[in-house]
Each structure stands twice: as C-alpha cells, then as structure tokens.
Description:
- The protein is of the alpha/beta class.
- The protein folds into three domains: 30 residues, no CATH class; 198 residues, NAD(P)-binding Rossmann-like Domain (Rossmann fold, 3-Layer(aba) Sandwich), CATH 3.40.50; 123 residues, N-(1-d-carboxylethyl)-l-norvaline Dehydrogenase, domain 2.
- The protein is built from 14 helices and 15 strands.
- The strands form three sheets. Strands 3, 7, 8, 9, 10, 11, 12, 13, 14 and 15 form a ten-stranded mixed β-sheet that branches.
- Helix 2 links the parallel strand 7 and strand 8.
- The N terminus is likely disordered.
- Keywords: NAD, NADP, Oxidoreductase, Stress response.
Amino acid sequence: xxxxxxxxxxxxxxxxxAILSPTTHFRTxxxxxxxxxxxxxPTTYNSVQFRAFSSQDxxxxxxxxxxARIGFLGLGIMGSPMAxxxxxxxxxxxxxxxxxxxxxxxxxxxAKYKSSPEEVAxxxxxxxxxxxDPESAVDVACGKQGAANxxxxxxxxxxxxxxxxxxSKLISTHIxxxxxxxxxxxVSGSKKPAEDGQLIFLxxxxxxxxxxxxxxLDIMGKSRFxxxxxxxxxxxxxxxxxxxxxxxxxxxxxxxxxxxxxxxPSVLVEVISQGAISAPMYSMKGPSMVKSLYPTAFPxxxxxxxxxxxxxxxxxxSQPTPIAAATNELYKVAKSxxxxxxxxxxxxxxxxxxLDQRS
Length: 359
C-alpha cells in the first residue's frame, strides 16, 4: 500500500499525490506577484502563442519580449475585484463592460478602456471574460462586436464565466477558428475570495495558454487545476455548485427547524462549526441568515442557473440527482419571491413561505 504524506499548509492539508500532481497547483499562503515581471514572447506550438517568463530570465532577449497586455470583459460582482487585483499587481489592463460606468473606478486606478470586446481582444495579448450566464458569454465572445473578431494567432482568450460544457465548446470553436488559444477557467469562490485573490480556477483547454496565464491566475486565486479537454472545467464547476446549493438548502432547513422547536439557531451555527460537518460557508452565512439578512456575495439567480445547468449535465449521462432537483425547485420559489439579486442564502425565505402556508 502506498504511503500518503500529509503536509500542513496554511489551513490546508495536502496529500503527497496532490503536491506531486502536475495538473494541480496550490497556493496556501498569500504571495505577491508583480505583473511588471511577467513578459510574453511568441513561440511555436502548433500555432503562435506566448510563453510566460520572468523579465530576469537570462535566456530572454529584449527584442522578443512584449509587455503583457491583459484584457478583462465583464465587471460585475466577481469581475471587478478580479480585474482590480491584476491592476494592483502592476498589470497593463484594458477593461470593458456593457454598463460603462462600472469601468470608471478601475479606469481611475490606471486601467484602459475600449468600447467593445472586439477592441479589447485586438489590443491585448490575453483576454479574460467573466459573464453572468451562457447567453452573455456567447454574445461577448462570438457576437457582432465579440472578442473573436479581435483575436488572431498568438493571442489567448480565457473564459472564467460559469457555463455548461456545450456552451464552452461552442465558444472554444469560435475562438480557435481565429488562430487564438482558448482556456475555460470557471472559478470556485464568491465576492470575498475574489477580493482577496483566493479563488480556485478550474481550467481546461489549451495547456500552453494555461501555462502562460498561470502567473495571472495566481494573482487572482489561491489554487488552479488543469482538467484536460474543454468542457471538463465547466462540468467540475457545475458539480461543485450543485453540491453547494444543496448544502445551503439543507442548512436552511436546519436553522428553521431548530427555531421551530425552541432552540437558538445561532447556537446551532456554533455547534456545526465545531463538528465533522463544519464548512466555512455555514460559519460565514449562518449569523446573517439568523437575522434574515442576505448581503449579496453570490446572487441567488446565479445559483439557480448553475443548478439548472447541473441537472442538464446529469440528464446527459442519465445520472439521477433527486436532491439537486428538489433543491432547484426551492431556489425557483425564492426567485418568484423577488430574491433573485439577494445572496443565495436567501433561499431560506422560500422555506419560511412553505412553513407559513402550513400554519
């Protein structure tokens, strides 16, 4: 039997298999990465692309170094802090958002602005996209003034939106038809991890673009996984969010049941935090849920969208998911109560409605 070496990091225990895996990269402690030290130069690997290396690399020559120009499309709850972290690391960042006013805070900090995804992609070496749903992701990448129109051989497009596999493959086909490289890289994490540069990237697609973008992913995240072919990153993200949505629904039931039988739900949160089922989500969301407060970190409408996409994924392989299906219905009830833009923890309100109807 193979021995498993457990190494303690900052709040993490990693097996030797995880540490040695070439496709899994963890950052357990905060690091400082300066974009001014990231350079890209063309090289040949089936097509022209970039290789990341330090400006101190003794093998590089000034004539073939090009300062990394980073594009960022979509500046919502997640995209804005992700782009901000790149700017604060010294990156040359160009931004676009449908509502231009959302770009203004970043422009004031040094970001450049272009009026369309096409113009951003044309002016940048690597372009990131963080859009709300599959329809938006396709439109921004492939639409009339989409990023694909500004891409060419030697450029890269990294889609960090949460979409389904078929959508990701469709975008990939359009991007790669231009000669550019494509990487899907949906993130696990919400507003606070995005602000703190503690996201988890679930990547798939062109391995060389993954290696090129790695220093940038490390600015925005704490770990990154390379999962192979396009579609695998999307699938992993949907499975993760399916589990998360179901956990939140069950947690909501527990909080309400404890209160109904005369217990203090705040104490329940404390008990859970010290037991085997402890999860950061419960400790983070529980106290505000007890007070019926739902400050938005991950909008409920996006959680329901991810559940819907996860159910479609399960259907495609004939995998029963009865718990997720029931959970999805609960989030739909919450949406019908006008809670779409609240945090996904507001799903507890849908259960309150049902309880009130029975009393």
